[in-house]
Write a structure and sequence with these properties.
Elements (H helix, E strand, L loop, with lengths): L9 E5 L3 H11 L4 E5 L2 H11 L3 E7 L1 E2 L2 E2 H11 L4 E6 L4 H9 L5 E4 L4 H55 L8 H11 L13 H29 L6 H9 L3 E4 L2 E4 L7 H4 L8 H15 L2 E8 L2 E8 L6 H9 L2
Parallel strand pairs: 1-2, 1-3, 3-6, 6-7
Antiparallel strand pairs: 4-5, 8-9, 9-11, 10-11
Helix pairs in contact: 2-3, 5-7, 5-10, 7-10, 8-10
């Protein structure tokens, strides 16, 4: 029984025979919104226009200009959620087997159709499409959760890194610049890291993250040692940034603008297999160096980049404050 409150699922049927199109519409019109096309090219256009609503694609095999399995491959490549079915009155076994082996089609239906069997096939195909959509939605939700977890874990690692290095660098206890770092990442519009967990075993992922974090910490330590050896006052940080970021930093009277904002988010947003650049290591080292002078940078996002200016450093965040920062990502 059809639920009148729910919209009918959409089925796209492609066939160069007008009689077959009418026959299919008459047979399925009560249980689906039947869209039709008379060629592979028209079928592609219909897919592109209605892919969000189409649940099932049914295509005849032998049509002028192109075979139906070309259309099925097109749908498989671009719209994998759509259930693909091949139908023909001809014995195109080779093309059919190829389409099945490549995963391009869900079913093969021989013409002429048995109406009852056709309706049942379409009902099952629509249900499969619904399950695919639900699975894809659950996967997206899981991905978002894991992305948030990845960012939270990296922020925790950053805090530990900053606290440890800052304690070593400042004789009387340096400020921990984690808030400045996170403020810059927010202003830069951080994008969650790529879903490595889909392609890696969890233990391998954690191991890779640990080695990546250790390498980043070593690079930051090296950059900070260089800044400490060079000396100078806190206001010199803008000249240092201009040297390292080159054309990615615009100097101003009261500070400057970091133009290439990806340099501010690299550790938090790049995949675990990606090595963090020396420029990004310098960015965190510069914030740590400022902490030894009791200074930090205030961030403000703008259309031309992230504006920075020198301000007095605050105390290290409490656990509750750090948790609040994590919630913002």
């Amino acid at each position: 029984m059809i639920d009148a409150a729910k919209p009918l699922p959409a089925i796209l049927y492609v066939d160069d025979e007008p009689t077959a199109l009418k026959y299919f519409q008459r047979a399925l019109g009560a249980q689906a919104n039947v869209l039709t096309a008379e060629s592979v090219e028209e079928g592609k256009r219909m897919l592109d226009q209605h892919a969000d609503t189409i649940a099932v694609l049914v295509s005849d095999q032998r049509m002028p200009g192109a075979y139906g399995n070309e259309l099925l491959f097109y749908a498989w490549d671009r719209y994998p959620h759509i259930v693909r079915i091949l139908t023909t009155a001809f014995s195109e076994i080779a093309h059919t087997v190829e389409a099945v082996n490549q995963g391009q089609i869900h079913r093969y239906i021989q013409k002429p159709w048995d109406i009852s069997a056709l309706r049942m096939e379409m009902k099952q195909a629509v249900e499969l499409a619904r399950l695919r959509r639900e699975h894809a939605q659950l996967l997206r939700e899981k991905l978002l959760i894991r992305q948030k977890q990845a960012v939270a874990n990296r922020i925790g690692t950053l805090y530990a890194l900053c606290a440890g290095v800052a304690g070593e660098a400042g004789a009387q206890g340096a400020a921990v610049p984690i808030e400045a770092y996170l403020a810059a990442a927010l202003c830069a519009g951080l994008t969650p890291p790529e879903p490595d967990w889909l392609m890696m075993d969890y233990s391998d992922l954690i191991s890779s993250e640990a080695f990546r974090s250790a390498a980043f910490a070593a690079a930051v330590r090296t950059q900070l040692d260089g800044l400490l050896a060079r000396g100078g006052g806190a206001a010199d940080v803008f000249d240092r940034l201009a040297e390292v970021f080159a054309d990615g930093f615009d100097r101003a009277a009261d500070g400057g603008t970091i133009v290439h904002t990806s340099r501010l988010t690299e550790f938090l947003e790049t995949p675990t297999a990606s090595t963090v650049s020396q420029q990004h290591a310098f960015w965190l080292a510069a914030l740590l160096w400022l902490g030894t002078h009791g200074q930090t940078l205030q961030m403000a996002g703008g259309p031309d980049g992230v504006h920075v200016k020198l301000v007095g450093a605050d105390a290290a965040p409490t656990p509750a404050q750090l948790a609040g920062w994590i919630e913002q990502f």
